[in-house]
Write a structure and sequence with these properties.
The chain is mostly helical. The protein has helices spanning 26-30, 61-66, 69-86, 122-132, 142-174, 188-191, and strands spanning 9-10, 91-96, 178-183. It contains six helices and three strands, in the order E-H-H-H-E-H-H-E-H. It is elongated, with a radius of gyration of 17 Å.
Length: 192
């Protein structure tokens, strides 16, 4: 392909690390450190059901964005370097097409509950409260957030998702690779 002038763009296994991590590597090691692993809705283990139920491990986006940015970027860099070594490529393709409230269904169907959503750790709740000016948000139950503040939480999480993609873009570009990003139209925050 390359001899004909085309570029090879790699889509990492399971959209690593955007949908979490499914393989052993630097990001999965990082998730073993205090505060890096996401807490699922009502303490449920988080998983990406449509791919390999029970094997994905998700990060806490607030931890990444506040105090874990450098550690996360370095872990991603190591994982991508390993992938590129095995599958030489000119760029990385990532997408974000997961819903903040997956149990609502796909394409904006509004039935369901908070099952499958993440991260509801005290740090995420505290930052959510700051972002949306909700006093004592860290004391809200996960169900309260879903029942009373679902739209606000969705905006909060989408903005975090965009910031995480910014980190990944910077990592990929620092490696001399192209960054190709896809986002579906359901994520209105990305298109604002």
């Amino acid at each position: 392909v390359k001899k004909h002038g085309a570029q090879v763009i790699l889509s990492p296994t399971g959209n690593h690390p955007i949908w979490g991590t499914v393989f052993d590597g630097a990001v999965s090691e990082l998730l073993k450190q205090e505060g890096f692993r996401a807490r699922g809705f009502n303490d449920a283990p988080w998983y990406m059901e449509r791919v390999v139920k029970g094997q994905y491990k998700m990060f806490c986006p607030t931890k990444i964005l506040l105090s874990g940015r450098e550690a996360f970027a370095e872990a991603v860099r190591k994982d991508y370097a390993e992938l590129i070594r095995d599958y030489p490529a000119d760029g990385i393709f990532l997408n974000w097409e997961q819903f903040v409230w997956p149990a609502k269904g796909t394409r904006g169907v509004t039935s369901g509950n908070g099952d499958g959503a993440y991260c509801f750790c005290p740090l995420c709740k505290r930052e959510f409260g700051k972002y949306k000016n909700i006093p004592n948000a860290e004391k809200l139950s996960d169900q309260d957030i879903y029942d009373r503040y679902a739209d606000e939480w969705e905006d909060f999480r989408h903005r975090q998702d965009a910031a995480i993609h910014g980190i990944l873009r910077d990592v990929v570009k620092s490696m001399g690779l192209r960054y190709v990003f896809y986002c579906q139209t359901a994520h209105k925050t990305y298109w604002a």
